What we know:
Blueprint: H1 3-7, H2 12-18, H3 22-31, H4 34-44, E1 50-51, H5 52-56, H6 64-76, E2 80-82, E3 87-90, H7 92-104, H8 125-143, H9 154-162, E4 166-168, E5 176-178, H10 180-186, H11 190-208, H12 213-223, E6 231-233, H13 239-251, E7 254-255, E8 263-266, H14 268-271, H15 282-291, H16 293-299, E9 313-316, E10 321-325, H17 329-335, E11 340-345, E12 348-352, H18 355-363, H19 368-377, H20 381-384, H21 392-404, E13 413-416, H22 422-434, E14 438-442, E15 447-451, H23 452-466
Antiparallel strand pairs: 1-3, 2-3, 4-5, 6-8, 7-8, 9-10, 10-12, 11-12, 13-15, 14-15
Helix pairs in contact: 2-12, 3-7, 19-21, 22-23
Amino acid sequence: MNAFEYLTTLPVASVDRLFNDPWACQAVFQSLPSLAQQVVMRLLFSHSPTPLSSLNEWVKPSAIETINLSIEKLCHLRVLSKSGNGQIQLNPNFKAQLKAALSSLGGSPWEEGRKKIKQEKPISAVQLEHYARKRWDSVLHFMVGSTAEEAPPEKVIQILEQTRLMQASQEDRRKLHITDTGYEFMLKDIHAQTWIFILEYIKNIDRSGVMSAEDMLQFLFQMSYCQMHQYYRVEDLSTNQKKLLGDLVQLGLLYRSSNKSDRFYTTSLAVNLIFGGLAGQTRAAIQVSQSLEEYHQSATTNDNAGIHGAHLSIVVETNFKIYAYTSSALHIAMLSVFVDIVTVLPNLAVGFLTRESIRSALIHGISAEQIYHFLMQHAHPRMINNNPVIPENIADQLYLWQRERNRIQFIPGELFDGFVLTDEFNTVVQYAKDLNVLTWSDASQLRLTVTQHGAEAVRKFVQSIRR
């Protein structure tokens, strides 16, 4: 669910309030397919409702189905509304603010406020990116149990639990372990990870009453139009937005040199948060890719590069030995979830797939399929030409270790013994079978077990036949 899909889940009144902001309206318009944008532009300066049938005349017969789908999408986003007599019109708030956005918006939000504070040399995009990735990597390190980075704040840890990316250990309720959902999360693009996390954060602050969901979305829409290498005045933010500064700084979306600083910077995580999941989309995505080209070049040569700046190539041998070529501590921490790491060199980690390491991963909710997918996804180029890429004995053993955990089924129950007569025992066994509560019986030892919920009925039956 991206930001625009989440917008459709909000109440109508909340969407109307969000459409009072021209930046939000521009972002929604920018996210639309080209045909839907054409529909909006044609209706933008219409002063009266338009018959739905007229829209079919705007396109060729072959595109009628496509334009109908576009109209449905616009109605779903509350940009368009249908009346009972088959007419449509733009949301009045959206219409007014989009006009303002297309005719007068330029630059970035809070642009005017920059002139009111003392100028300083902006922080480079590379420095901001290192800062943002370090903040976010602290969350990812915590998820895989690595202590290479400082643990994230308590509020962040709570969201990790609420999103079920982590859960309490069965052995020690005070400790958290990554789940299968969390492991899938680790394999996603950083901007997809950030949005999943921020979506839960939005729901939390909405429930707590700190800020409404539409106000938070407005803040995110505004940040997506900022320049990464420029600073903005804190005083230009609303009271509620100022309350969120600290949290967004901790997550790496914003940078602020101190709590008393009069300015803040937006990082790539904030600028690309809204449009990062939309293919081929917008100037925000273009700005990020251009500004961070230098960062990615430097990250590949940095021994301390994070998971998103370092490369990972894995060689899997038939003897269960793993060679992982990486300079990322986070990659090594991810591997250690299911690999017994024995040697770590500056650009290489060596370990083994063992029954104990795989069993530990399975206990924490990570499946054999996910482990196999991870090994395939990061297979060394020399292994790609192999058929199969991952040795068959390795793949088979992963699934066999997983099935080991399902060989025994535990059914709580009660044991009945002490029978003297075989006929009495057989009668009780048949009665338990009729009730569908019999779990086991041994005719030679005259013993049987029944489920807990059927034990009382069987006990009363035994007493009755003995009278």
